[in-house]
Amino acid sequence: MAETDANSMKQQLKTRHVSMIALGGSIGTGLFLTSGSSVAQAGPFGAIAAYIAIGIMVYFLMTSLGEMATFAPTSGSFAEYGNRFVDPAFGFALGWNYWFNWAITLAVDTVTVGLVAQFWLPQVPSWIFSAIALTLIFLINLFSVKTFGETEFWLSLIKVVTISFFLFIGVLAIFGIIHSDVDVMKNLNVGQHGFVGGWQGVLSVFVVAGFSFQGTELIGITAGEAKDPSKSVPKAIHSVFWRILLFYIGAIFVISALVYYQDPRLMSSADSGNVMMSPFTIVFKNAGIAFAASLMNAVILTSVLSAANSGTYASTRTLYSLAQKGQAPKIFGRLTKNGVPLASLLLTMAVGLVAFTSEMKGGNVVYGWLVSASGLTGFLAWMGIAISHLRFRRAYVAQGNKVEDLIYKAKWFPAGPIIALVMSLAVICLQDPQSFANWQWDKIAVTYLSVPIFVIPYLGYKIIKKTKVVPLKEVDLKD
């Protein structure tokens, strides 16, 4: 049954779908809204340095995932690899942790849709827009994988076109082709030659940059349903990485050149739900584009829907894979005729309904804790990818195979995954180190709640099932 189900899910996503799903998951409000606060915290080149460093780390992770995904394509991605290459308890914790991350992200995004849509219709309750968004996402994911892929392609394309237009307008403004009173050299040379706050300022942006790049690992999720993953996954890895790096670095440079880093609108953008605080909007308005606010609000709305759409896909496929391995109830491992894990989709949608608790008395408290609980899950997933890849390559060689025979080989092994592992761990530890100085337990609990949500399932499964780390000679390398 599992093999039949797996076959029915394959051959439905084209290369352009695979690329755009990962691109759509990683380019969202983090770029359109919080990129301005990064410049305010670390200065122009401090922010750029942080994003380049995290971008390199993400590239290593993507190539690690690409090597495993082309060798053994699966819709369960790194949770499945954690099962096979490390320890069933590790895969169990990784899978449930990742499902929880995207399910809560769906709730967060539906709330955001309601708030953004009120820009045009402020008199309409936000929960109505949230309900419409949740229903739309459910229907898109219900019909077929192909429908989902096509929808995500066009949603992501809107973002790509917007960023490209922004970069074009920005370059014209920087060179004075579009009238601007901005002193570009003064803006870029603030602080210590573009760096503000020293190394601490750069480190503070590491966390923001890390969250911004999350979603790139969706390439691994799509591999199990991609047409010819041995070709589509490597192409997607290279195209997505360079596009993301170009978009983020290019956008931050344009923002830094055209908006002073202490501009109050820029500094408040990370904490304000007002679309007018988007650095993109500021640049457009300064360039004399009158409809900038409405334009960016529409793009941000599209961006949030795209992220929620990708997240729903990722969470349902992760839960489906867990069920296939007996690590979730069997009902979540059943597919419709269209190859959709309906029960997994319904459970994910049920978590999305948490969005509506924010409209109820005390709901903000519950909602806030759930958001905090999902905060570090993306970095834990990245650590899982690095560990799984290190184990996979060692097992592959230990069982007498030649690295040259791999369809796709990760770059800089073993340095690449080790660097990614160390950097992910550093970002987790640097979330809020000041809270440990005075042992502020309430802040520690909220900030690091994701860690016990991973550790407890891992230890619980390990104790109950009595699992052990899989010996290298016994690792399942069937592709």
TrEMBL record:
According to the record, the segments passing through the membrane are 18-36, 42-62, 127-145, 157-178, 198-219, 240-262, 282-308, 339-357, 369-392, 412-433, 445-464
Keyword Transmembrane in annotation: yes
Q: Which InterPro entries match?
A: AA-permease/SLC12A_dom, Amino_acid_permease_CS, APC_YAT
Superkingdom of the organism of origin? Bacteria
The answer, when asked if Membrane is one of the entry's keywords, is: yes
Q: Which residues form a coiled coil?
A: none
What compartments host this protein? Membrane
Q: Which UniProt keywords apply?
A: Amino-acid transport, Membrane, Transmembrane, Transmembrane helix, Transport
Note the PROSITE patterns from the entry: AMINO_ACID_PERMEASE_1
| Pfam families attached to this UniProt entry | AA_permease
**UniProt topology in membrane:** Multi-pass membrane protein
Locate the Amino acid permease/ SLC12A domain: which residues? 17-469
Name-wise, this protein is Amino acid permease
